[in-house]
Structures are given as C-alpha cells and as structure tokens.
Records
---
Amino acid sequence: MRRTLQPSGVLAVMIASAIALAGCGSDSGDSSNDNASSAGESGSATTAPEPRTTPPTEIPITDPLSAPPEQGKTFYWLQCELPVCATIAEGMKAAVAAAGWKYETQVFKASDPGAGLESALQRNPDAIGITGIPSEAVKPQLADAAKADIPVVTCATPEKPSTTTYGAICGSTTGPDGENLALWAIRDSEGKANIVSVTVPSFPSLATTTNGTKDTAAEYCPDCTTDTLDVTVDDIGTGQVAPKLIAYLQSNPDVNYVLFVFADLANGVPEALKAAGLSDKVKLIGNGATSGQFQGVADGTQAAWGAYPYQYQGFVMMDAALRLTADGKLPDGYEEKIESNPTYIVDSPDAANELAPKFEWPGPANYEEQFEKLWTGG
C-alpha cells in the first residue's frame, strides 16, 4: 500500500539531509511503489529492546587536539534556507568563537549549492562547513577546495569522507533514530503498531531513518506493519503535507502511528487531525524535533519525538575542522564516532517540560565544555 506522491516542482532544498543532484534531483513520481512491509516472525513487543528515552551526557569524541587551536583563522559556514539550518548555525557560531576563530557565513540556494561553495572559496577561509549536500552535487568546487588545502566538513550526507570530497561527515546516518522510534512504537502499542513514515524521497539520507524503522519492526514485531508516505519540498512550503496525510489516513484506517523523519513535515498536522476527527486514532512521533513538537508532547497533542542535537553538530564540524587544519587528518576511528548523532526520545509531558522554556535539546549536557576541554586541555 505504499503511496508515492507526484512532486509539484523541482526545488532542491535540504533538511539535515542530502539534496538530489542537478538534473536528477526531482522525484519522478513512481520511483518507489513497494508494498508496505509486514514484520517477520522473529519476535514480539515483549522481546523488543527498550528505546532510548534518557538524554546522553557524553560526547562520543574523546581524543584531545594535538595542540591548542591556532587563533584568528576563519571558518566559513554555508547555511541552507530552511529554519533548521539556522538552528545548526547557532551551534556553529558558538563553536567558532570557542575555538578563537573568525566566523563568516552566507545563506546559499540549495538549488545551486555549487555557487555557494564557490563564493566561500573566493573568501579563502581556513575551513568551510555545510550540511546535507552530496559531494557529487559540488564535485568541481570540492576539487578546488582540495587543491587549495581548505577542508570542507559537513553533516547529514550519506557517504564516506575522502581527501577529495568532504574531510569529515557527522550524522551521516539517522538509521539508529529510526530504529529507536520503531522500538518505542512497538512497546507503546504492545506489538500492534502500524506505522507510516512521512518522508521526502529526494533526500537520500532520510531513507536511513525509514529503513531503520522498517527493519526494526520486521525483526521484533510480527504483527506490526510499516509504510511510507512520500511528499515533496514544495508540499512543505505550500502546506500540503497535512492534507495529503489526512487523505492517506482516511484510505488506510489501520495506521495508528505517523512518523515524521524531520520536524518541518509535522507542521499543521495536529490541527488537521483534529479537524478530520482523527486525533484519537493516530499517535504522532518523529525525529529531529524543534520547539513546536516538544510543546506538542508537553500538551499531549503529540506522542514522542527524537531529540536531535542540531547545535551540537556545529561543534562537531568545528572539531573536525580544527583537526584537519592542524594535522591534515583525523584520528583513527574518528569518523565512526561521529557517524550518528547522540539522540534520545522525549515521550512524556514531564520530559518535554524539562526542555522549557526554549523547548529544544542542543546536545549532551555541557557538550560545549567537553569540546573546549579537548581543544585546550583545560
């Protein structure tokens, strides 16, 4: 019963995930018409592990810098157009200041990321940061950066770093987040979860979330099902995600959990569910919550959201940039440590209210101080 919706245009915008390449970035409309996956016979709700519902307290990076950062260098941050990238920028700016570097930035057009990277290179910074753009989309610019010995670091790109592409990639997979949300739904439903994941298929890294959900349900819940509802970036901008979801739910009345792979997809959905008389029939869960979703958990209109450390990502990118500019390489095992971000699920009003008044989770407790200790030895 998988349903793929035709995109209304080609707008290559990213959300902590990869945009499609120029010329082939739009969804053709029928590229993924698989049937909904039913879980295998390998387990039940009682055998599913407990999901992570407490916040991590330690950053995964443990190696100190070989020497304190050289002061006065410049980090150039390329910021995407969506609100979540402005949140990442808060952490990026704070990290640059903590390292004693200079911060420069611009908002780039995700439909032409190469132009943004070219502009950054013209400023001749010491390092560049960007999120969600696959290396093939900016291949000539990354080659120029490599020739100029300017490391480019990123997050949310589903590939491996290299000397000629990105020097480091944090959060390249959100598979563990999809797994964690599936475990939560399995246990919450007592093994009767029918989950639809709302996603944007033109962002390749988002498939790691939906695959994590599907595979975990198949492993632990024989009576669970998973499906995807594909929407487009244009649907987000024009407010069409909610009505398309309502239509899907009316055609698939057995679905009892709606999983959003990132927060912007949930905009307007609680209100639309109430108007359609569906509020009591489905629970809203998702990954990468922002203040609206945490407030929804606090007031009971949404059930469970993954707390995604957007500001923390800025510190990870800065950490990688410091190591690459100083040593020309990263420590052994470094990439494995940053492959997925530390996250947890907020699933109760009390847990959500712990994040008030901003209703956000920037990262593990005292993550800034933990990074600064690695940088300065203090």
Note: The longest strand covers residues 74-79.
---
Amino acid sequence: MAVVALAAGCAGGTPAPAHPSASTASTGAGTASTVPPVFAASLMPAKPGRGLGDRLALLSSRTGDLLRWLTAQPEKATDGALSVRDGWVYFVSYPIDPSSPSGSPSPAIWRVRVTGGQAQLVQAGASDYAVSQDGRAVAYVISADHGNVVEIVARNLVTGRRNTIIMATKPSPEANNWPPGVFGLTWAPDDVHLAVQFQLTAAINSVLVFDAFTATTIRDARTAPTPCTVAYSYQCDGYDPAYLASGALTYVIQRLNRSGAHSASLVAWQAGHPTTVLSFPGWASQIYDMTARGQAIWVDNPGQLKGPWTIWRWSSGAPVKITALPPLGASLYYEVGAIAW
C-alpha cells in the first residue's frame, strides 16, 4: 500500500469491518470499467511535529499505491483534498498555528496537476470550492466582516453573474459554536441548484439546497429529507451531498441511537422520490466522496484503537476494498483527513 512504501513497513492489522451492501436500484451509477484511476487523499503524520498538518497525496484507485505526493509537508497548516477534475486536484490549505493572533492568515483554495508540479492559487480566503459539472459556474465559502459572517459566493463564469448567500452571522462574542461548518458544495447539472452540508455543531448536520443565484440567506434553503425511525431519533444527520449527472442529489444519512449504535446509508433523490443506493452497517466514518457518474469512495475508521483505516470504492454491484492504511506505528503517516475523486 501507498503509505507502507514511505516507511518500508508492512500493512498489518485486523480484518476490515463488514462492508456495505449495494442496492440494485438505478441511480445513473457507473460501471467498474469507468472507475476513476486515481484519487486524492490527505494523510496525517503519525507523530506530532512532522509539519503539524495533513499532506496531499495521489493514490491508485485500483491498488491504493502511492503515486506521488502533490504537496510538500505543510508548515503550520493542513492540506485538505476537495475534488479531482480535468486533471487537477483542488484542495484547501488551512492555517492551524494555535499561537497565531487574531487576524492570522485565512484558508485558501489551491489546485495542483495530478501529474505534480507547482500548486496554483485559485481563491484566497475561501474554505471550500466547487466547479459545476460543465465548468461554467463556481461556488466557494468565505468569512466576511472580520470573520463574523459566513457566506457562500456563487459565480457564473460565462455571464459574470454573482450572488452571495449569508449562511450565518455570529450571534455574540461569547458564542462557543462559531463558526458553523459549511462544506461539501456541489452543483446540479443545471448550473442553478447548489447543495451544501451545513454543520451547526459537531452533532447537528444537514444537507441544504439553494437556488444559487436568487437565494440571499440560509432561510432560502430547502432541507434535504432525512427519514428517521424512532429508534434513531437521538441523532439523524445528512452528510456529503453530491449531484449526479442525471440530476439526482445523493447524500449520506447517518443515524445514532441512544445506545451508541451507528448506521448509515447513501440515498439518491430525484423528482421527489428517494432510492437507497448503499447501506453502511455500523459505519461511523464521515470521509466520503462521489463523482457525477455515481462512483463512490470512502474510508472506514479502524475497528480497534490504532488499527488500520480501510478505503473502499463502489460503482455498481458489491463494494471493492482498495487498501488498508497501516496501523499506527507502522508508517510515518496514519489516518485519512479527506478524500476526493
């Protein structure tokens, strides 16, 4: 496996947890032969002090082998994979120096070719970024008014039209849940509808859908349905939205009951009708990505403390295990911070 080669170690560990089962419903998913050949992942150093943050790498979707590092080990920052498109890997670089005073450098969106080379700045001051399926529109998340407002900016690159959606304003200087998370931006094929994951707190997540060029505040959003049973009424959240080329909106619904049992499923909504695409028994990971052609990739957390992280892919039929990251101590890197196809 990729990271093993870095440390000349061996991938050991326990068997992977039970893998998800696939439904037979049609959602416009691709086939095994159309699976993207590579994916980007943000890998975390196993020991503190090695640059602090995650480092961006390109891996094989077939074997999980490390093909190349795309960024140098960031100093007092972390690089998070966002998407892979048209031969580029888009990522966000976040400053993480806890000693920095107020007004320290803000996050920025960069891109680097899958073949490697110098990274290019795409959007300063942004924490998430999405390009529409036809490349004609972009959207990104910024903090405005000295960090007291979180906004989504949508731009049509052809017409020049621009719109700003206010997602949140800081309620008070003492607020302890600021800022909320706004990420997972994804465009519908119509270049109009935009979906996003809104994380009010670590335990409250929802998928919201906007008209990107008429919405002005979060109140204009439609909330994607999250069907829950009484058994899972303790917590039921939506994560990781992704529009398919067919126009269906997919996202993960994760449930937690009061006894601590997890379950998650991938659903697709189109014309008001839901379809369960995958089921993830006991799955508690939030590291996941989906292409417009309906190919999913995700990471399972270790089944035991310091155990290996397992990476899966799916396009149709049964999910395929790509690889298992070595357990803690077997490599210079351990844990996946973000993953993107």
Note: Residues 2-7 form the longest helix (6 residues).
---
Amino acid sequence: MISVIIPSFKNPKYLDLCLKSIIENQEAKNEIIVVLDGYADLSKDVIEKYKDSISVLEFEENRGMSSAINYGVYNATNEWILVVSEDNVFCKDWDTILVNHPAINNKLIKNNSVITINQIEPTGPSIYNFIIQDFGKDIEEFQLETFLKEEPKFRKLNIYDTNDGSTFPFMMKKIDFLKVGGFDIDYPSPFVVDWDFFLKCELVDLNLVRFLHLNFYHFVSKSTKNRNGYIENPNEKTEFFSGEQKAAEYFQYKWGFPPKRDKNNKCKQFLNF
C-alpha cells in the first residue's frame, strides 16, 4: 500500500474532489493523510465526509506547504509515500498500477528513485512537458467521468523517462525522503523550495524519473502553492506572489547560484562538487 500526503490550505472544494477521486479509484485501502495548514474549520465538512477513509493532521495556524508536507510524511506508516496537491484528480486503478507495474515491482525503476507522476493539464504549454487536454479549467466545469474514461488513452507504452522528473506529484520511499531532510522550512514562501528538494535528492544520488503509464489531472494555479483561487485581498495576493523573489534570493544565498534549471528541470549542473 501507499501513503498519500495532501497538504491543504483553505481549498475545501478541490480537496473534496481530490479525496473522492483517490478513494473511488483505488483497489486497496491506502493510507490517505490530509494536512490542514491552518483554517481547519473551512474543511470540516469535507473531513467529516471522508473521515472513515482518511487521517487528518491540523496546524492551528498556517505554517506553509513545506511544514505540511514534512509533517504528513513523518506520520506516514507505509514504505512508499505519494505527495500530491489538493488540486490533483486521480485516475482509475492508480494504486494497482503504481504498486504492481513491472517497472516498480520488478525494480526496473531502481529503489532509490523519486518518481514523478505524469499529469494532464487544461492549458499549456507546460514547462514540465505535461499532456494538454481540457477536461475543465476549474472544478465547476470539470468533466470527471469524461476524464476517467479518456485518461487511459494518454498512457504511454514506454514506462518511464529518466530525463524528465523532479516535480509534483511525486512518489518515493519514506526513508529516502528522510535521507534528504524533507523540505526546507526556512524558505519564505512555497516557491522554489521544490527545486531545492529535488536538488538535494540528486545530491544523494536518487534517480529522478517520470512515470508515464498513468496520468493525474491537475487544475493549474488552484493548489496550496499558488493560492490564486482563494486569496480575496489584492494586497495579500501581491504580497504572496512577491515571495517568489524572496525565495529565489534565499536559494541563491543557500546554494551560491540562482534557481535556474536545465532542460530536464535540474540544478545539479551548477554545483562544483
């Protein structure tokens, strides 16, 4: 079984759909951990709805995506963890494919790997080479049944691409997550910290691969990291997105080079050691 970690911040309607898709399209009873990063009352109805199928961790105040992911992983009880955004929608048989697929089960993908799950997004182009197919740009127009029916058509015969990993959602062994120290909670915003995390994974020789044999749906800019959908105050939104520059400056201070990636979304080429 797999431990699914979902950091969530003030986004109950997308969390609802995410949980529905996980639970209804799984074969086993996987561990599903929702980390409410403050404002837990906003999601209480969703949590009540799925209480028999999920575990819930709460922060009284907003601590940020990095802390939420770390806390969720620390509490996971399975060997494999799968970190997803609340604006992801899972496809049919997702757990059967991930657990039983020969690429993983027979270790064609090495044990020491970080496996990026391929995604379908409604708009593009995507810097991560995701599939562009519009099943709905927001939850109100999303065609769930159409997505579930059509998604298998986008699965590729080649199982994984070793040159195109290092982004969300990702699956890896919990011990490997702990090996790299998880996400750096000192970043002043959720921007760039994922680049930092995957760089650390590279430095301990974890393989960053893309799994192409299934696809999750992703609503662009609806997740905890982006917050477009639920910042009502224009000044607050401006302040939040200005944190991207601050995060980039912190990355430069920490590593000694700017957060710039090569064509495979990696930073390791900039290091001298």
Note: The chain has nine helices and ten strands.
---
Amino acid sequence: MKAMILAAGRGERMRPLTDTTPKPLLTVCGKPLIAHHIEALAHAGIHELVINHAWLGEQIETTLGDGSQYGVRIAYSPEYPEALETGGGIFQALPLLGDQPFLVVNGDVMCDVDYRALPAEPKGLAHLVLVPNPEHHPQGDFALQNDLIRSEGQSKFTFSGIGVYRPQLFKDCRAGKFPLAPLLRRAMAENQVTGELHAGFWMDIGTPQRLNELNQRCNK
C-alpha cells in the first residue's frame, strides 16, 4: 500500500510560526512534525509515500529529500498557485498513488493508530478512523453504526484525518480545488464507507497552544 501525507495547508491558525516555516516542519518532540508520520508509516511497512505541498513547499522537499534518510521513497505533488484542499489535493496526486487503495494521513495530527491494522482493501470506497470528540470540536463529524459510517446519527465522533481510500471515490471529479467531505457523504449515503473508533492518543495540532501541549507531553 502507498500512503499520502497531506502537507499543503497554509497553517493560518499557527501564525506567526508558519509565516516562515511550513506547518509540517514545525518541531514536535525534537524533530519535524512530518517526520513522525514518515517514521510511523515506515514502521508499518509502508515505504512508498506521496506528499503534497503548497505554502513554502520547497522547504519540505529540501528537508525530506527523496526519503532515503527514513528508509522510504517520497514523491511530491506540488500545488500551485494555491493549495487544492483535501479532495483536490488527493485527486491531483492519483497518478502517483496508483490504482490500488491507499492510505491518507493529515499532516497536522498526531495519532498512535496502528496502520498495519487498517484494511488494505476496504469493503467499500473508503475506511475512516474516527476518534472521541476533543474539547475544541464537541459536535463531531460522523456517526458510526456497527462498521458503517453515516453523515448523521445520535452520537457523532470526530474524523481523525486518517483514512484508506479507493481511487474510484474520485471517479467523477475534475482537477481543481475542492473538499473531500462531500465525496465521503455521497459514498456514505450508498453504504460505501466503513470505519472504526480509535480510543488511543490523537491530537489535532492546529494552534500554537496545542503544539506546546504536545511538546510538553513529550518531555514528561
């Protein structure tokens, strides 16, 4: 399986830290945030990676190179003149990802999910990892009914930003900037999205405060 790390966001909520450094290169526990993702994927036996980038993306390529320092091979999907959002970014990278299901990980989260336990062949078009709702997102995103994910339901959980997708999810898409959620909701309506609830560690590193909290956690 190949994996894609989403790293094209501007990181507006992280400013001024991201004015001169792309968010994936911010330091977490002594190394760039994105390095944690690369190492976790390599540990899970996933060595073919695709990384998209936009804002200050040349810094990402300079820092990570071809991935050999991590024991992986990295292909880049630059997005210019602006980031294409999650859906558009994945769609542009499909030629690099191939025709088999692939894993996608948001570059601005930290999670101890075991990638080896995720399905290499989802039953439907996608398989999502959900997590308990954090304080900053109490309303959640999707409901989990048995192993199917629904757009509505009594108890909603938060989408972790980690999922396995079939390229067919994007079959009706066109190049350009567009979000991923509408594609997922349409697939959910057709019972084509499975999922699981991860009860372990997960954090959305979207603000300087949460970045500091994570680094303090590392030092304990």
Note: The longest helix spans residues 85-97.
